[in-house]
Every structure is written in structure tokens, then in C-alpha cells.
């Protein structure tokens, strides 16, 4: 059976409806306390003797699309307790319904708080207007600030990192509770002293995940000497990649020598030549694979089985009968090249125009042939003079060397092969970095010492020395389940909130929104 609807169901708990009216400004409901008595705020005794009445005006949640105001017929009571210093007091309501000096009901305050958290001041105020919530921009921010104290459960595992208020200018510090997956504090700078002061107040913290080196290591060591520090795995991986890139940079002179004339820039070939070139590279690859297997002592029969090539082909390769040379094909332009060169030298560089003139010379080919020739000629001039081959940048080489053969084009494979055979120290460095990554991924702490021994005399020695200096924290990074990965995620969230505030957010407001919003 359904209960009958009572008007008091519309107003907050503990009030009874006296009267309801409607005017241009919205609904007006007059209420009074349902209780006959009230407790004295000073001594707590229950008082019944009414001194006087007054009207208290409150904003409440809108109703049926109209703003709703409440008028409370509130009472003042006498306190009759002999030892109480308070003679008269205004009646109090349940704090979960209405705060003592509140101008809004708690349920409205709650909505405003969350609107402010989600959208910030101005956007929240304009949405509030549409929702018929009587609240200004300033009020929204004030409510968010008031609720957003730094209340959090004392953490035991935290992540600490810096974040940019403004890139390269001003940085703050973010601290996350890694167990509860929450941001718990924003500090206004990234000074070790600031972090140290915060950490000292949380002596129960047992694990601190932080980036490698930097001030947070020092701050943690001073504030929480007993806590385990964990170097951040994400940063470690990033540092490892950077170390390899640095190794490539340092080796660029040898790399250029190794690549030398071995490369043909595919951009300088015609489409047809490029297809041929790829075929040539493919054959070279096959040859290398077969020769490699033979060198390892694999029998011809076995090579045929593993590679799927015919016995005949394998035999020819092993006898050195298939080492062909890549040649640029003779083209239909061959006859006209001297004439074209002369035109080009005279300043005629437009492919279409050249083709029209060439036709009067008896050329029967199509426009594309001439246009491609002109385009190639232009590119060749850009690649200063006769340099047909050019070494890619250090970054590109580092990428080629690490992404795996399957994702490389044939010409890239040729480049990598040239570098690998010409600069063997880089191959060693790559393998050292790969081992480091594998060690982190597989949590193989036992490999750390042998890895250090191998890495310290290599091209990535400075990275190895860095790991050495931060030995304990890196060991913890390998074994500990904690990492700053989620702190990175929280920083992303923080940046989003910061951007919504158009860069004008003060730290307390930012903190209230980031921490309160979870
Ligand atoms: Zn009292």
C-alpha cells in the first residue's frame, strides 16, 4: 500500500510545513521545527521555555523547476539549567540538515559543493543558474574551499612527484596515497624542505615512490629515515631509453662512417627503381640469413628446412653466386639526358614544361617519367651535391635499432645492419638496455649486480653510475609492487582541473577540487 503524500516530505527532515505560496521569484514555504524542545548548545540540557520567535530565511533545492525559499519560524529558548552560563539561545537543528548559521540547507550546500568541484567557479555558476540554484561564482568557490580541508586518512604508501603550474616556470608537488589511489596533498613548490615538512607529519609512511634522484630522495631520507624509497619504474624505463639515445649520439661519427656509401636514399629513386631496390635488399637479407646459419654450422638440409628456400638457391648463396649488385635501371630518358641536363642548367626546372619541350625533340614517353626525373633532380640538389647517401639522425637510428626488424623497411634494415657491423659497442649498449628493461619487468633483482658489472664499462656507463648511486631505491623498484605510475595519472587529472580554472587557481582551491573530487 502506498503512503499518502505529505507536504513535509518536500522540506528537510525535522521541519513541519506551515504554509506554501508561489510568487514571481519562485516558491516560498514556511516551516517550523517539528520538535517542541531544543538542546542548549552550552550545557546540552533539553529546554522547553520559549523566549521569542524570529524568521530565518534559507535557500533550498529548486522544486519543479522553480527556485525554492524556506522561511523558518525559529525560536529562542531560555536555558533553565542553574550552572549554565547561557541564558537565551537560538534553537539548533540537526547539523546534517542545517548548519547553525547556514543560509542554505545542507542538501543544497552539498550539491553546490559538488558542482564547484566538478566545474570550478564560473562554469559551475552558469550551470547552477540553469538548474535554478541560487548561487554566485564567489559562493561556489567559498563552498568548495570550506569543504576542501586536507582531511585524509593517514597513508602508509605514497607516491610523490612534481607537476607544472606553468611549464619551466613554476612547479608544485603532488602526493598520492597509492593504496587508496587518491591525491592527498598538493604542495605549493618542489623544494625539498617543503616536502620534508609534510612528510615529517606522517611518520607512519612506510613506502615512498619517487622519481630518481632529485630533492624528494633527500627530503624522504631526512623526514622518514625508516621508510623504503622506491625509484619510479616509469622514470627508470624512460632514463634507460634516454641512455641508449645518448650512446647513439656519442657514436654518430662512427655511425656515419659505417653507413658511408652503403645506403641509397630511396627518395632519390624512381618508383620502378625503388621496387628493384627493395628486391635487391630482400635478396641481400636472404643471403645474410643463409650465410649466418651456415656460419653457425647448420647443414644445407637444415637451412632449407628452416628458411623455406630451395636447395638450389641455398647452394648458390653459399657458393657466393648470388651476390648481385644494385644498379639503377636504364630508362627511356637515357637518350635525352644530356639535353635535359642542359635545360636544367639553363634554369628550366618545371617537369611539365620540360616534357612538352622534350616531345618536340622526339620523346615518346609520358609526362610522369619526366616529372619524376625533375623531382629527383630537385631532391638531389637539396642533398648537397653528390651525397646520395645520408645518415639519419641519432634519434632515428636509436629508434631503428630498438623497434625490431619486422617494423623496418628494407632500406632501414640495411642502415641498421651497417651500424651494427660498424659500431659493435652500440649493439652491446642496446643489449644492456634491453636487459635492464627485462630485469625491471620480470622483477629479477638477482640480475642487478651482474648487470651493473656489465654496464659500467659500456657506452651507457653514466646511466649505470646513476643506478649505482640510487642502488637501494632501484632495488626496491625491481622488487616492490609500488610505482609512481598512478601518480602520473593523478597529475593528468590535476592538469585538467587546473586548465578549467584558466590558470588562475590558487593552491587551496586547486587542492580542494583535486582532493575533494575523488
Ligand atoms: Zn544551557
Strand content: 15-25%
What is the average of the pLDDT values?
80
Helix amount, in percent? Answer: 40-55%
The number of helices is 21
Bound compounds, please?
zinc ion
Give unreliable regions as ranges.
384-389
**CA(first)-CA(last) distance:** 40 Å
- Based on DSSP secondary structure assignment, what is the total number of beta strands? 12
Specify the structural class.
Answer: alpha/beta
The best one-word shape is elongated
Radius of gyration: 38 Å
For the biggest sheet, the summary is: 5 strands, mixed
Explain this structure.
There is one protein chain. The protein has 518 residues and is an alpha/beta fold. The chain has 21 helices and twelve strands. It has helices spanning 106-119, 121-130, 137-147, 192-200, 214-223, 233-250, 252-259, 271-295, 300-307, 311-318, 337-345, 351-360, 367-382, 394-402, 410-422, 424-442, 448-455, 461-469, 471-479, 485-500, 507-516; strands at 15-23, 26-33, 38-39, 46-47, 50-63, 66-78, 88-90, 157-166, 170-177, 182-187, 207-210, 228-231. Strands 1, 2, 5, 6 and 7 form a five-stranded mixed β-sheet that branches. 28% of the residues are buried. Mean pLDDT is 80; it is low at 384-389. It binds zinc ion. Zinc ion binds at residues 40, 42-43, 45, 79, 81, 84, 86.
Amino acid at each position: 500500500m502506498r503512503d499518502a503524500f505529505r507536504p513535509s516530505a518536500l522540506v528537510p527532515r525535522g521541519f513541519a510545513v506551515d504554509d506554501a505560496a508561489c510568487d514571481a521569484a519562485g516558491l516560498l514555504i514556511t516551516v517550523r521545527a517539528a520538535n517542541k524542545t531544543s538542546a542548549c548548545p552550552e550545557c546540552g540540557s533539553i529546554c522547553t521555555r520559549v523566549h521569542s520567535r524570529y524568521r530565518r530565511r534559507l535557500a533550498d533545492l529548486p522544486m519543479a523547476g522553480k527556485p525554492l525559499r524556506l522561511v523558518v519560524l525559529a525560536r529562542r529558548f531560555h536555558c533553565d539549567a542553574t550552572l549554565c552560563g547561557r541564558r537565551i539561545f537560538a534553537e539548533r537543528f540537526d547539523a546534517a540538515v542545517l548548519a547553525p548559521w547556514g543560509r542554505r540547507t545542507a542538501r543544497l550546500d552539498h550539491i553546490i559543493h559538488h558542482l564547484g568541484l566538478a566545474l570550478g567557479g564560473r562554469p559551475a555558476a552558469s550551470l547552477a543558474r540553469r538548474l535554478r540554484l541560487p548561487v554566485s561564482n564567489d559562493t561556489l568557490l567559498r563552498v568548495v574551499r570550506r569543504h576542501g580541508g586536507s582531511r585524509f586518512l593517514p597513508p602508509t604508501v605514497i607516491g610523490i612527484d612534481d607537476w607544472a603550474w606553468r611549464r619551466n616556470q613554476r612547479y608544485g608537488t603532488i602526493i598520492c596515497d597509492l593504496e587508496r589511489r587518491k591525491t592527498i596533498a598538493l604542495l605549493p613548490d618542489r623544494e625539498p624542505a617543503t616536502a620534508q615538512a609534510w612528510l615529517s607529519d606522517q611518520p607512519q609512511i612506510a613506502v615512498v615512490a619517487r622519481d630518481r634522484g632529485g630533492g624528494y630522495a633527500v627530503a624522504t631520507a631526512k623526514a622518514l629515515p625508516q621508510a623504503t624509497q622506491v625509484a619510479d619504474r616509469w622514470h627508470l624505463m624512460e632514463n634507460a631509453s634516454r641512455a641508449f639515445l645518448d650512446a647513439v649520439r656519442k657514436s654518430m661519427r662512427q655511425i656515419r662512417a659505417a653507413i658511408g656509401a652503403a645506403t641509397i636514399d630511396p627518395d632519390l629513386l624512381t618508383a620502378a627503381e625503388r621496387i628493384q631496390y627493395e628486391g635487391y635488399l630482400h635478396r641481400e637479407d636472404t643471403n645474410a640469413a643463409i650465410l649466418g646459419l651456415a656460419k653457425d654450422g647448420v647443414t644445407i638440409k637444415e637451412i632449407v628446412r628452416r628458411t623455406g628456400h630451395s636447395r638450389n638457391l641455398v647452394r648458390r648463396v653459399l657458393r657466393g653466386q648470388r651476390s648481385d649488385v644494385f644498379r639503377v635501371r636504364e630508362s627511356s630518358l637515357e637518350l635525352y639526358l644530356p639535353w635535359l641536363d642542359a635545360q636544367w642548367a639553363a634554369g628550366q626546372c618545371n617537369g611539365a614544361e620540360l616534357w612538352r619541350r622534350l616531345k618536340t625533340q622526339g620523346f615518346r614517353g609520358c609526362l610522369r617519367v619526366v616529372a619524376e626525373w625533375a623531382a629527383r633532380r630537385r631532391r638531389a640538389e637539396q642533398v648537397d651535391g653528390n651525397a646520395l647517401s645520408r645518415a639519419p639522425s641519432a634519434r632515428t637510428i636509436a629508434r631503428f635499432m630498438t623497434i625490431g626488424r619486422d617494423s623496418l623497411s628494407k632500406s632501414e634494415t640495411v642502415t641498421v645492419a651497417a651500424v651494427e657491423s660498424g659500431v659493435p659497442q652500440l649493439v652491446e649498449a642496446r643489449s644492456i638496455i634491453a636487459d635492464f628493461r627485462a630485469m625491471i619487468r620480470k622483477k629479477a633483482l638477482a640480475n642487478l649486480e651482474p648487470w651493473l658489472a656489465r654496464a659500467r664499462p659500456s657506452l651507457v656507463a653514466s646511466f649505470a653510475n646513476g643506478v649505482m648511486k640510487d642502488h637501494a631505491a632501484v632495488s626496491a623498484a625491481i622488487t616492490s609492487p609500488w610505482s609512481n605510475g598512478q601518480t602520473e595519472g593523478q597529475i593528468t587529472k590535476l592538469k585538467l582541473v587546473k586548465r578549467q580554472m584558466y590558470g588562475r587557481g590558487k593552491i587551496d582551491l586547486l587542492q580542494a577540487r583535486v582532493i575533494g573530487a575523488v
